[in-house]
Amino acid sequence: MKTALITGSTSGIGYGIAEAFVRNGYNVVINGLGDPDEIEQERAKLENLGDGQVIYDPANMLKPDEIAAMVAKAEKTFGSLDVVVPNAGIQHVSKIEDFPIEKWDAIIGINMSSVFHVIRSSFAGMKARKHGRIIAIASAHGLVASPFKSAYVTAKHGVLGLIKTVALEGAEFGVTANAICPGYVETPLVKGQIADTAKARNMSEEEVIQKVILEAQPTKQFVQVEQIAALALFLASDQAAQITGSAQSMDGGWVAH
Ligand code: NAD
Prior knowledge:
With about 260 residues, this protein is α/β, with parallel strands linked by helices. The protein has two domains: about 5-185 and about 225-255, Rossmann fold (3-Layer(aba) Sandwich); about 185-220, no CATH class. The protein is built from eight helices and seven strands. It has helices at about 10-25, 35-45, 65-80, 100-130, 150-170, 190-200, 205-210, 225-235, and strands at about 5, 25-30, 55, 85, 130-135, 175-180, 245-250. It has a seven-stranded parallel β-sheet with strand order 3-2-1-4-5-6-7, sandwiched between helices. The longest helix has 29 residues, at about 100-130. It is globular and about 55 Å long. The site of nicotinamide-adenine-dinucleotide (NAD) has 29 residues, from helix 1, helix 4 and helix 6. Nicotinamide-adenine-dinucleotide (NAD) binds near residues 9, 61 and 188.
């Protein structure tokens, strides 16, 4: 049985990816912040969906030692680690001149450097076993910018550079590295933003979706978590062995502009 580790999987896209891997017969390591009792309930619910085991590790993505210990625990518990999905991420929106320095550091740390630390810790094992799949959840903002998101855009562009380098270093060892670049995804986080923006601007939620949130997304539809999870599963499969170093857009046509 194969094993997948997904960072930031107590919510949103990461949780959806964890669910897809469990359903497809993987052991899964989930990770992320949250209330311990709620996380235990989520873990147990996930485990019931498949034949594999699901374990939780609370590693903070700002702590390289905790990330390394999480990877070591996964390898020790399951004997191997086949798929890593660096997914944890946060956002902060502000003009550059006002951008809080601690927010810059946190976004670079969680959204970019933790991707390096997860890969650094798991790469030797994957190379030795001659098999591995690294699937980073980047963003359309890894390919294009928007104003007021300087740290996020910088971090996501950095992830794409890292993934290309890892692809080259893993190429002769059966280890692929790719990034998925979603546009706006309907996660609890985004749903909350819709309601808040509707109140703040005195618009209907549908108007907010069409005119504010999905302005950049030509299909005017959200990407669904299940669609990203399906792409991640494919990138993890044997059929995807020759896809490496790529940025896979799933953004309703956003970067085609
Ligand atoms: P989310 O807020 O629902 O989930 C984020 C996850 O990261 C949570 O599990 C949270 O606990 C975890 N996390 C945050 N800080 C952490 C830390 N220091 N240590 C460990 N875990 C931490 O967000 P989401 O929308 O599911 O986003 C997941 C990824 O997808 C992010 O990298 C995000 O940038 C990317 N993304 C999201 C969208 C979107 O529209 N939602 C679009 C493109 C890319």
